[in-house]
Design brief:
Shape: elongated
Distance between the termini: 62 Å
Radius of gyration: 21 Å
Number of helices: 4
Helix content: 55-70%
Length: 120
């Protein structure tokens, strides 16, 4: 299969790099949380794409079935757990950003560093 046949992996890598760039390059805490979300989504998509079995079916045993290719449900179940953890991490991060904004009046990282240095 050619590189063009693996388009999903190229899309995942592009999504991962965008998320990583936003996470590293932005000073706004809310934008950093959104970059982390993009990165998490790309990892989840990668696991689901790797776990896909072409022609595979659900692992339900049926009497009389000949050669059947089964898909492993474990990666999909693990990614459901990762989605729940990602949503809760986002909620906690946004909650902290709201509290930081209420306490310091900003969610810009450089301004928070400046306020922290000025406060003895």
């Amino acid at each position: 299969m050619t590189l063009a046949g693996h388009w999903i992996y190229w899309a995942i890598v592009a999504l991962m790099m965008v998320g990583l760039y936003v996470l590293i390059a932005r000073e706004n805490l809310v934008k950093k949380i959104m970059g982390l979300n993009l990165f998490q989504v790309s990892v989840i998509l990668f696991y689901v794409a790797v776990a896909k079995v072409r022609g595979g079916t659900a692992p339900i045993l049926v009497e009389g079935a000949g050669d059947v290719v089964y898909s492993n449900p474990l990666p999909h179940v693990l990614m459901l757990t990762a989605i729940v953890v990602g949503v809760s991490l986002t909620a906690v991060g946004l909650g902290l950003a709201v509290r930081i904004r209420a306490a310091y009046g900003s969610v810009e990282e450089d301004e928070l560093d400046r306020l922290d240095e000025a406060d003895p």
